[in-house]
Design a protein that fits this description.
Length: 273
């Protein structure tokens, strides 16, 4: 039974990128910025009940600082139904370029939260090899095959805790291509659930150590600091390129029911040229 005193709410799902210098925003800074955008867009957003009411809005899982994205989402609850097209146009006009929303649609109120629904995340890594090292497609393949074959458990430190990356469980698929300019591109398809998710910077550090013949995280510590200090790789870029709902081995659903276009200036758009 519906309580007549409760307002009717509408759940607007918005897709947006996180690019350029804004990839260095922490999650709390990102939340503050997005809420400012919603307010400037003059959307009729709902607020929570209680002594300290705040905007009813929910986000996907936090990105590591320094990781860009072409596929972030937030759900904002509205008290009035306005067209998704109008809402998107208002948000685009109010947002900085590198956070400018790219799509929006209404979803069911009873649909699971974004963090509960999304269970597959894809990353694109761009690594630049120092001139004194020779990295080949074969070498990267042997490392990945070895991790799967041995059921690798890569230890790493996060804060004061020691954690383990279970490669077989969290890394669903991997692909790579070594280019002629000392750059390599690595694609990761990862599992994301209540038991944990894969932090891409740990894989970057593990590759860097394995290419030097080390047992990653054992012979040399891996510390989850967001931006890694590496030896084989001079520098690297990481981008989250999709977040999806994997129903079964053959069915994957996008959070808005359709694929997103790669924004100009993203690592994904550069890799498609």
């Amino acid at each position: 039974m519906t309580n007549a005193s409760e307002p009717t709410l509408f759940r607007l799902r918005v897709a947006y990128p996180k690019l350029g210098r804004l990839k260095y925003l922490g999650h709390l800074e990102l939340i503050h910025t997005v809420e400012q955008v919603v307010r400037r867009a003059k959307l009729p957003y709902a607020v929570t009940q209680g002594f300290s009411p705040h905007m009813r809005i929910a986000y996907t899982s936090a990105l590591p600082v320094g990781t860009s994205s072409t596929a972030e989402y937030f759900d904002v609850y509205l008290t009035e139904l306005i067209s998704a097209e109008d809402a998107l146009a208002r948000l685009q006009a109010a947002a900085p370029v590198d956070l400018r929303p790219i799509d929006a649609a209404y979803v069911e109120l009873r649909r699971p939260a974004l963090t509960a629904e999304i269970n597959e995340v894809r990353y694109l890594l761009e690594v630049f090899v120092r001139p004194e090292f020779d990295v080949t497609d074969e070498a990267l393949s042997q490392i990945v095959f070895g991790w799967y074959d041995q059921g690798a458990q890569i230890p790493f430190h996060r804060g004061k805790k020691t954690k383990t990356l279970d490669v077989r469980r969290l890394l669903k698929a991997e692909g790579h291509e070594v280019l002629t300019d000392g750059c390599a591109r690595i694609q990761l398809c990862t599992r994301c659930d209540n038991e944990g998710s894969l932090r891409p910077e740990i894989i970057v550090a593990a590759f860097d150590q394995a290419l030097r013949g080390l047992d990653p995280g054992v012979d040399e510590q891996i510390v989850s600091t967001g931006i890694q200090q590496l030896t084989v790789f001079d520098r690297y870029n990481v981008e989250r390129v999709s977040q999806s709902i994997c129903v079964d081995a053959s069915t994957t659903i996008e959070p808005l029911g359709r694929e997103l276009e790669a924004p100009e200036g993203s690592l994904l758009s550069r890799s498609m040229r």
